[in-house]
Design a protein that fits this description.
The structure is a single chain. This protein is of the alpha+beta class and about 600 residues long. About 35% of the residues lie in helices and about 10% in strands. It is built from 22 helices and 13 strands. The strands form six sheets. A three-stranded mixed β-sheet has the order 2-1-7, with no helix packed on it. A hairpin with a 3-residue loop joins strand 12 and strand 13. Helix 19 crosses helix 20. The relative contact order is 0.11. This is DUF1549 domain-containing protein. It comes from Polyangium mundeleinium.
Amino acid sequence: MRRYTFLFGLALVACSQGDPAASSGKPDCTVDPGDGVTPVREEPEDELTPLRLLRRASIALLGVPPTDERMQELLAQATPEAQFAYVDDFIDEALEDPRFYDITFEHARRWFNLPLIPRTADAPEYGAKQQRVLTACKAGTANEGALHYFRDVASADVNCAAGAAKTTVEPWWAPGTSVTLVGSAANTTNTGQIKPNGAPVDIECNQRAEGTCGCGKNAVSCWYDPGTYPGWAAFLATNPDGQRRLLAEEPARLFAHLVWHNRPATDLILSDTSVGPNEVQAAHINQSLAGGALDVLTDESWWNPASFAGAAVDPHHEANDPKAWREYAISARNAFFLKERDYTFDPRKDPGMSKGFPSAGMLTSLGFLDTYPRERLRAARALETLACEQLLPPGGDVAFNPYETDPGREGPCQHCHARIDTAAAHFKRYAKADHAFEGWGAQYYMPGVGKWQWDPAWRTGAWPYGSEPFAQWNKWYLPGSLLTPVTEEEANANPYALFLDFLPPELTLLGQTSDGTVGPLGFAKLIVAAGSFDRCVVRRVHERVLGRDIDPVTENGYLETLTASFVSKGRLVRPFIKSLTQSTSFRRGQ
């Protein structure tokens, strides 16, 4: 029976360095007490049989055992060498099988463990959507089948009666078709009215379907739910096409996409790239509109199949399918998630308002940002998930200085918050409002960016600034704290200095100093520079293929060798997975 050398020559490396973790309990390593030389033994012939190896490879790569036909083909091979060669060919085929994409997605979904975006009031309106729900006029009305605002119940008869305002558009959710909008939904002007306290107030619409404002170009600020209970389709987790579920899946889909198309794993958090069908991209479009960036309205590439037919997609859809998980540039959908990879802005000294922050793969997916509504929670989850950091209480009897106001520098909480708060600073400039327009959904503020600017009185907490997110900012964004390293004078001169979202030179994260890049991309650069991201990816992929994690303490040499090889080969996950299937551990069933 043929033998495989230990993966990347690791056994030889570890033994030659006298690594006790490698030599302890390993049949490949012995230590000669006489001359200090570490000999390397011949590996014992204890590989899995070809049939068992085929089964292990099939389950690891495709999630299912091999078929009877496959096993019969294997057994029909004349020699053990031919049978092993058959398994190698099977592994190559499996890595190109769409089921490999599926199991990669499921692995990433469990790894990221991203919950669905929570509600903060009555479902379903208070989810991620910033669009109004349309429903069809009932049979027998003059405008039967035309669409009007679902919550305009009192005026439904007027909207659906003869003489109501109407317009016909090609809707973003059904390209190639047309729908008729009636009533306020058909308002094509840039003026409308809202009634915040019962009395009408004139507003500029700017393509936002509030009050009596219309749905906008291609009905971008609306969506149609033909179900029995309008509005619930986007909210229910059981709906595979619902926006709430799709947004929660986006990070895992992005990882699977990068693996499938052989892109570097760092694109998961460093790139301007994500994947999503029309429903996902519509969320970014409407966040851009909420900040007043209307240029996205002239770009049809996010909903028109004629524009995106060439995009890279998942293996289960055609490139022109609006439901395909297709590649798109985040900055092209949301003007405030920037294309620039090195954008810096210091509100303590730079004039004007920030342009936003650079896009950063899954870290600027709305599923991630909206699911975790506050900066410290985002940071903690990102550290645990993407840097494999363990945020655990300190062991033993440790003395801490008294806690007063800053968990990052005071009291026992600083054991974790010294890392959490320096990471959380990068996630401050995005917050969920505590209220929403009924039938519309939540609103998300990016303070000091675009239209998200307020009277400086917001710092006092006086009405109307006593609710979230202002209460959160005023309570926790304290000048001089680890989370907010600005002085009181700087905050008084510019209240938006509180949202400083990069680390000043005197602070570090995981031993790394910031280059000044703001926002989640600044965080991503730090965990990549620290090596934490690469080691974490290696551990999670190893766990998926070989069935166990790598202990970073007792198996440090093993982890570092694997990581060095992964990085040197371009951080491509699929070739790395193949190399794991060639390892002694995999071939022995360990």
